[in-house]
Prior knowledge:
2 copies of one chain form a homodimer. Chain A is α/β, with parallel strands linked by helices and about 300 residues long.
Amino acid sequence: MDKSEFIECHKRIKPFIHNTPVLTSQLIDAMADASIFFKCENFQKMGAFKMRGATNAIMLLTEKQRQQGVVTHSSGNFAQALSLAAKSLGVKAFIVMPSNAPQVKKDAVRGYGGIVIECEPTLLAREAKSKSIQEKEGATFIHPSNDDNVIIGQGTACKELLEQQPDLDYVFAPVGGGGLIAGTALASQYFGNNCKVIGGEPYEVDDAYRSMLSGNIETNKTTNTIADGLKTQLGDRNFPIIQQYVDSIVRVTENEIIHAMRMIWERLKIICEPSSAVAFAAAIKHKNEITGKKIGVILSGGNVDLQNLPF
Amino acid sequence: MDKSEFIECHKRIKPFIHNTPVLTSQLIDAMADASIFFKCENFQKMGAFKMRGATNAIMLLTEKQRQQGVVTHSSGNFAQALSLAAKSLGVKAFIVMPSNAPQVKKDAVRGYGGIVIECEPTLLAREAKSKSIQEKEGATFIHPSNDDNVIIGQGTACKELLEQQPDLDYVFAPVGGGGLIAGTALASQYFGNNCKVIGGEPYEVDDAYRSMLSGNIETNKTTNTIADGLKTQLGDRNFPIIQQYVDSIVRVTENEIIHAMRMIWERLKIICEPSSAVAFAAAIKHKNEITGKKIGVILSGGNVDLQNLPF
């Protein structure tokens, strides 16, 4: 995953993604005593950065692989991203979803052209079902976060941010499965000017924080957080990158996440997911270090259930 | 209020306002069967288009008038807009507010540097208190919507929209006190290319719709609408402009407002007020006329109480 692969990836996916806007707020800057640049992946196609990695992964398939389609298991943004990316590229996408996933999420996947395959709501059942589709259809499995092509794709958000603001001192990104933070860390190495990358993670699912301490991929016993995109754990492809290039992981409470989310909604007048707000919450928590500095914050997505808000 | 006054006004206020972005959504376009361009005044300074008119009105004061300050009565966006515009220009702003106005609104006015003067919660008391401040302080009264300089200022939002999208067939704007719709109608005459202006108004406060029918300024007996920025009535400065240049006024139900607001939040991923959503709701309701056309929608503001949402 060297610099040239990043540049090639960005060229490749550009026609299929938005170069999302970077927003600022004088009031937020005054409050944080820093200049904060929000990279708005909530405005990305289908509403999240996942569109980038999904598009890159599909575009790198061989012609034969494309004809046989792709498969993943996810009930979140990656399911929708893979469906839409596949549709844009004329490829079939099989999405394995637990039978108890909300109807609205199944509908969203179908709306983007994905083929929903239901399974029992266990990890074992999901993996078994994915495996059977790989065998039966010859479809290629694409992991939501632990795949080199996905990691590079997600990193293009930070690349765009640094192209617009080359002198950022820090970039904050949320940590879930590790694809975004690993891609962000690589992008900051290649395109930043001594720019440090810090991950934000809920206390309630602090597997990445503990993984950094122990040197092994840790898991979460419970996942009781509002940041539902961050419940997953790191993988063997992204963890070594995170260990090498991520400066630190800052943990935040549920209240800090809700407070940060509210500030973004009220001040920037945009809709972001709780998972996005985690990165901003981490920046606020890191106040002493960011004072007077130029800070990037990756707002990862904007798919929120308006009927279930924390305010 | 001729074309050159508009051009001068826009030049004058430019350093003090944002040229707000124009957003689009493929999904909304597909749903509406039209190309819709949202002029995002929710991203304007202090969160609403009112900043434009307030700034213009203050800048046109004499030096002596500036020294004695400005006064208005409002508990909405204009109170905050006049406060912030006055502060930016080094002028005192007295804001007469009913004693029962929410604390958060008084705090917002004070946060922008306005001097809050409380009065009994009646129109009579508001007017008497404003009058007394005009006499005591020598402050100039600035009406939120029935003032030529305010009307021209509000119209600059549509001017910017037409500079970016010169071939709009229609522009939709909400109708409250009439300042925005009158300014929009004039701007579309001067800067549009045969562009019609249509007002959106809640059924619950359809005074403008009835005024157009009767030829007189009508009032509302009740104001039971979620679009709290649209409860006011037209004035003698803006009504003649509306009669002459506004194509029609489309009334919408409370459910249609909430549906439109939800679509903007979910699809554009931005926060807009119910009053803003009224214009989009009117466009959707006008579906037959807008099919295949290029449509502008003025999203008037984004100051929403997140603790009191209609979803």
